[in-house]
Amino acid sequence: MKIIVNVTPKKTVLDPQGAAVGHAMEQLGIKASSDVRVGKTIEFEVSSEDTPAFRVQLDKLCKDLLSNPVIEDYRYTVS
Amino acid sequence: MKIIVNVTPKKTVLDPQGAAVGHAMEQLGIKASSDVRVGKTIEFEVSSEDTPAFRVQLDKLCKDLLSNPVIEDYRYTVS
Question: Which residue from A34, A40, A53, B72 could staple onto A7, CB 3.0 to 4.6 Å apart?
Answer without folding.
Answer: A40
